[in-house]
């Protein structure tokens, strides 16, 4: 178990080093291409209720994706993670300028006093972050396991779509029993269907 965790951390470090070697202009250009691929993706266009993420370091930025999703009249849902109870709630965000706050973990998250809970089985498509992924849908996050708890509870019909740069694709993610796969991966060069 410790050996697998060590391999995962090595992959995180290598991927982050590759990303750090890219210039800001390159990252911006690649992010724009991924965004365009997402907005050309039929499953995304047909979805009414979309689970998105507030990006952190080493994840594809969702700032413009969020803005455009509202322009497409999507119902936008974000996860609210509770580190104390290891629980996750999905919250509908109507106005990101008012409904998003800086959380206790230093990440932006929905304000539970302003946002309504949404059941997991209502999500049409889930956009999933990752630090690294492989072509089989294996996903490596920061190690907190948040999305490994969300993914298995989503309906089978909900497409789980990972957004990563080609520089974040690795030959194989070492998977543990609790690790969950995504169905589809969108990069700046291609769409990979694992399903």
Explain this structure.
The chain has 6 helices and 12 strands. Strand 1, helix 4 (63-71) and strand 2 form a beta-alpha-beta unit. 31% of the residues lie in helices and 23% in strands. The chain has 195 residues and is α/β, with parallel strands linked by helices. The strands form 3 sheets. Strands 6-3-2-1-7-10-11-12 form an 8-stranded mixed sheet. Strands 4-5 form a two-stranded antiparallel sheet. It has a two-stranded antiparallel sheet with strand order 8-9. The radius of gyration is 16 Å and the shape is globular.
In short:
The chain is α/β, with parallel strands linked by helices.
Number of helices: 6
The total of beta strands comes to 12
Task: Show unreliable segments.
Answer: none
Report the average pLDDT across residues.
Answer: 91
Evaluate the radius of gyration: 16 Å
N-end to C-end Cα span = 28 Å
In percent, how much strand structure appears in the residues?
A: 15-25%
**Strands ordered across the widest β-sheet:** 6-3-2-1-7-10-11-12
Major beta sheet summary: 8 strands, mixed
**Shape annotation:** globular
Write out key terms for the chains shown.
single chain, two-stranded antiparallel sheet, 195 residues, 8-stranded mixed beta sheet, alpha/beta
Topology diagram in text:
Blueprint: H1 2-21, H2 24-40, H3 42-46, E1 49-51, H4 63-71, E2 75-82, E3 87-92, H5 96-99, E4 100-102, E5 108-110, E6 116-117, E7 125-128, E8 132-133, E9 139-140, H6 146-150, E10 159-163, E11 184-186, E12 191-193
Parallel strand pairs: 1-2, 1-7, 7-10, 10-11
Antiparallel strand pairs: 2-3, 3-6, 4-5, 8-9, 11-12
């Amino acid at each position: 178990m410790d050996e697998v965790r060590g391999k995962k951390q090595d992959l995180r470090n290598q991927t982050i080093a590759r990303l750090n070697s890219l210039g800001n202009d390159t990252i911006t250009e690649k992010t724009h291409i991924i965004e365009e691929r997402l907005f050309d993706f039929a499953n995304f266009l047909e979805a009414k209720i979309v689970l998105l993420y507030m990006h952190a370091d080493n994840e594809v930025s969702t700032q413009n994706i969020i803005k455009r999703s509202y322009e497409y009249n999507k119902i936008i849902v974000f996860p609210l993670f509770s580190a104390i109870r290891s629980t996750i709630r999905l919250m509908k965000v109507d106005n990101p300028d008012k409904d998003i706050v800086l959380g206790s973990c230093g990440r932006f998250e929905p304000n539970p006093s302003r946002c309504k809970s949404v059941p997991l089985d209502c999500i049409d498509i889930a956009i999933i972050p990752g630090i690294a992924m492989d072509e089989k849908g294996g996903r490596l996050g920061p190690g907190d396991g948040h999305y490994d708890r969300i993914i298995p509870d989503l309906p089978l019909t909900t497409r789980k779509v990972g957004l990563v740069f080609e520089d974040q694709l690795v030959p194989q993610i070492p998977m543990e029993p609790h690790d969950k796969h995504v169905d589809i991966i969108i990069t700046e060069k291609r769409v990979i269907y694992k399903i």
